[in-house]
Amino acid sequence: MPIDKYTYTKLSDIRSDIQSGSLSVKQLIGFYLQQIKEKSHLNAFLEVFEEEALANAARVQDKIMLGTAGKLAGMVIGIKDNISYKGHRMTAASKMLENYVSVYSATVIERLLAEDAIIIGRLNCDEFAMGGSNETSYYGPVKNYIDQTRVSGGSSGGSAVAVQANMCLAALGTDTGGSIRQPAAFCGVVGIKPTYSRVSRYGVVAYASSFDQVGPITHSVEDAALILEVIAGKDEHDNVSSSLEVPDYTTRLHEDAPRKIAYIEETLNHEGLDPEIKSAILHNIEELKAEGHIVEPVSFAYLDYVVATYYILTMAESSSNLSRYDGVRYGYRSPKATDLESVYKLSRTEGFGEEVKRRIMLGTFVLSAGYYDAYYAKAQKVRRLIKEQVDELLTQYDFLLTPTAPTVAYKIGTSKEDTLKSYLEDVYTVIASLTGLPAISLPCGTNSEGLPIGMQLIGKRFEEDKLLSFSNQILKERQL
Ligand code: GLN
């Protein structure tokens, strides 16, 4: 990767350079804008807020010099295009919302701005966050910076590549079944999905409401902790957001402690797992042991059921959530429509892409009177069983360890050939999604072709502080 004097991997370095006078916020923004232009072929950004970012540079610079700056001053951040930012377009990578302008800002955006972050643009993703390769975007796939014939992962593909290719320091993504962690793994960066309800979903396009969470994608664990600390916490606009106090993730980041980790044996013996990923994970397990941690194999009986359970539930929830795009209130309206019924039918037929339509139809099916008990109600019960078993494992261990994904970034075009296979890619990430637990993906090496491999750690409910400090410790030991 090209090295440049502005290639920063954490905010604390930026801040000390600004403080010492060797860098200005304006120079930094200029650098990122330049990178975005040079790497526009990666298709990570859907829009760049160039003037606005430059206009904010002086204000943030002054605040830093005066010592009145917020925690995120100097942080240049991109946002996934399913998060509302007042006065800015937000498309959810769909034709349906092609011309939609947000009328209010998501709580996460308000909180970033209140701490002086500079938002540099909106990032490509899978349409309505449905997908794992960014190939369902109406605006085309995002290319992996390491090999541009390969996918970025998804659905937060633009977020991961923007960080990977140094087009911004950090990005926000959303994660329903792995959409922060899997692209982070494919791009060799850090991505954390917080505990369900830790971060407000207000202003975030709803996909599957009992799963959706916002989280950061960063180079360093330090920045992930910092961003999470800012965006987490009770929000009166999101009824399910937790009122539990948000720990100081950054000050706890340097707690070093020997930990007890379980790796799920079935995940390593899974037939779809790339042997190179398996050996990278086994190698990491040995390293963890050598570093003084207890690492033991455990068994998890439900691995074969997690993908089906996840897809039945999320499709059901999405069919309900996406019913609001009817061509009447907002979003795309077909010019061919002649009456109310054709407004609904044609607008939805023309406005949604293939994958979104597939999910709405399957979701409607599993919720329909004759099939509700066989699919939706049953999946709810299986979700409970999965949760109970994972919670039980976490009474004996601090973390569960798995690969983040069974493969490395694959060639663009392959996921369309076999939809079921692409769903099976989510086998490890959906464990934390179904159970609402916090989970992080950390870079843990590369395969023989130099493609990044990710390792997932799942923590206990609301124990993001331990997950982050342990992750920090791991990356420090490995000097990653
Ligand atoms: N790949 C998963 C899906 O398509 C995850 C998506 C997400 O987390 N938003 O549902």
UniProtKB/TrEMBL annotation:
Q: Which UniProt keywords apply?
A: ATP-binding, Ligase, Nucleotide-binding, Protein biosynthesis
HAMAP family found in the cross-reference section: GatA
Question: Could you say which protein family the record assigns here?
Answer: Belongs to the amidase family. GatA subfamily.
Q: Does the keyword DNA damage apply?
A: no
Look up keyword Lyase and say if it applies.
no
Q: Which leading EC class covers this enzyme?
A: ligase
Q: Which PANTHER family does the annotation name?
A: GLUTAMYL-TRNA(GLN) AMIDOTRANSFERASE SUBUNIT A, MITOCHONDRIAL, TRANSAMIDASE
Name-wise, this protein is Glutamyl-tRNA(Gln) amidotransferase subunit A
So what EC number does this one have?
Answer: 6.3.5.7
Which residue positions are annotated as catalytic?
A: 80 (charge relay system), 155 (charge relay system), 179 (acyl-ester intermediate)
Cited InterPro entries: Amidase, Amidase_dom, AS_sf, GatA
Using the record's annotation, list all stretches that form the Amidase domain. Answer: 29-468
